[in-house]
Amino acid sequence: MKVFTLILFTLFSLSFTSTSNSVPNTNSKPSHAEWNTLLGKYVDQKGNVNYKDFKKDAFALSTYLDSLAKNAPTDQWSKDEKLAYYINLYNAATVKLILDNYPVKSIKDIKSPWDQEWVKIGNKTYSLGTIEHKILRKMNEPRIHFAINCASYSCPKLENTAYLPATMEAQLQKATFSFINDTTRNTISENELQLSNIFKWYKSDFTTKVSLQEYIKPYSKIAISTDAKVKYLDYNWSLNEIK
Q1: Residue 159 sits in the same domain as residue 187
Q2: What is the mean pLDDT of each run of 10 residues along the chain (243 residues)?
Q3: Same domain, yes or no, for 93 and 153?
Q4: Are residue 158 and residue 61 in the same domain, yes or no?
Q5: What is the DSSP secondary-structure string of the chain?
Q6: pTM here?
Q7: In this structure, are 91 and 147 located in the same domain?
Q8: Is 119 within 8 Å of 126 (Cβ atoms)?
């Protein structure tokens, strides 16, 4: 009996030791609450950013990016969870790039802004260009082009709320509708579409199943012809800063 009791005690002790010394899961799904707070604090309804004051919270932004780096997506994540991760990562990293080089008049004043490999995901580093072209665009969701922001006036606006898995569909729809009907970025009439260069640069993403006109038509407040002429507008790379 004493031997049996001793065995039970030993097993219990080993079990407790194993549990207490277990390594915490470093691939949990990160919270986007901190990023949401920062967006609400420094981004206005038009998507313009108060970079000057944002610098005061540079540490909080870095902390958020660190949390993303330590919790990289896995195959078990849903598509919406991955979209939220990479869209928020791209936008937050773009803001950090501006803050690190502020004051600047344009993101293009920074040397190779989309080619620098500094954004951490797990134990690897990526460029903004790689995140956009090799990860986000590979997810076959063309509406990401209206969600990611390149810190410029002609870019789709930076929303002042974070993208979340639970509301991803509604947020992407809203961003797409907002961008297409924004007369500072597109001028639409029934027979002529004067469009942002985004539709030119990424035309292949929008036209896998339909024409460009057919892609835009369901979102446009103005009825358009499926054979409307398409022209492209000049792109304003000035910093999307609150004046």
Answers
A1: no
A2: 39 36 55 99 98 99 98 98 99 99 98 98 98 99 99 98 99 99 98 99 98 98 98 99 95
A3: yes
A4: yes
A5: -HHHHHHHHHHHHHHHHHHHTPPPPS-SPPP-HHHHHHHHHHB-TTS-B-HHHHGGGHHHHHHHHHHHHHS---TTS-HHHHHHHHHHHHHHHHHHHHHHH-S-SBGGGSSSTTT---EEETTEEE-HHHIIIIIIGGG--GGGGGT---SBTTSPP--SS---GGGHHHHHHHHHHHHHT-TTT-EE-SSEEEE-THHHHTHHHH-SSS-HHHHHTTT-SS---TT-EEEEPPP--BB-B--
A6: 0.89
A7: yes
A8: yes
* Domain assignment of residue 146, given as a range: 28-163
- Same domain? For 86 and 150 the reply is yes
End-to-end Cα distance, the chain:
81
Q: Are residues 54 and 129 in the same domain?
A: yes
**Domain co-membership, 108 together with 45:** yes
Kindly calculate the radius of gyration of the chain based on its CA atoms and give it in whole angstroms. Answer: 23
